[in-house]
Task: structure prediction
Amino acid sequence: MSPDPKRPGRLSGRVALVTGAASGIGAGIAQGFAAEGADLALVDLVDESAAAPVLDAARGLGARVSYHRADVSDEKAVRAMAAAATDTHGRVDVLVNNAGIFTQSLLEDMPVADWDRVLAVNLRGTFLVTRVLIEPMPARGWGRVINIASQLGQIGGTEVVHYCASKGAVIAFTKALAREVARRGVLANAIAPGPIQTPLLDAETPAWRAAKLAELPIGRFGEVSEAVPTAVMLASDDGSYYVGQTLGPNGGDVML
Result:
């Protein structure tokens, strides 16, 4: 990999694949990466037309962008997506596992189907996408895996035990993966944002949002733009000594 003199930046010459990229934090990360010189393979479950705003924004920043529609919980679909992205861009240097879903109910009322689907997308999806895309990274001696977890995976939350379980598992997955691959030049880390103004937050009930807002030391929900710099840092050489870490742009909801 050599930097692109026409597109200087911390990610110049890199190719990044971002799942859940059509909106929210994924869209913000995609645009942040494009602004730093990366080319992009963007993945989501929606039609390409629904992802047009982020695709257009990244192309407007000079990025070469491809879009791949896939359900990350489906192994066959993930393998086809990864093959298409690699065929288009030649390789993937940076993987961001951002795809995630959310439902809300007390454990005693929770449909088993909700539990299964949330774990399938948030955890199984992270595993499947990472497994297929990380394979060539050690041979090249460089790679980055960034898993988007949640502060709820660290502290828990009412009416979201399945979501908390999935994101806590993503954090554990990240630590174990980091121990496997760090000495071969591949660095795995997680980001555990607090409540960020995204469609996922909108899916929570007004009562839940009000209660969560009252708990936040900063007194407000975060913006996507406040989570993106952490991802850019971890994807670049600026993050070269971060291994198996969970970084938390969370407004003080978690203090370690």
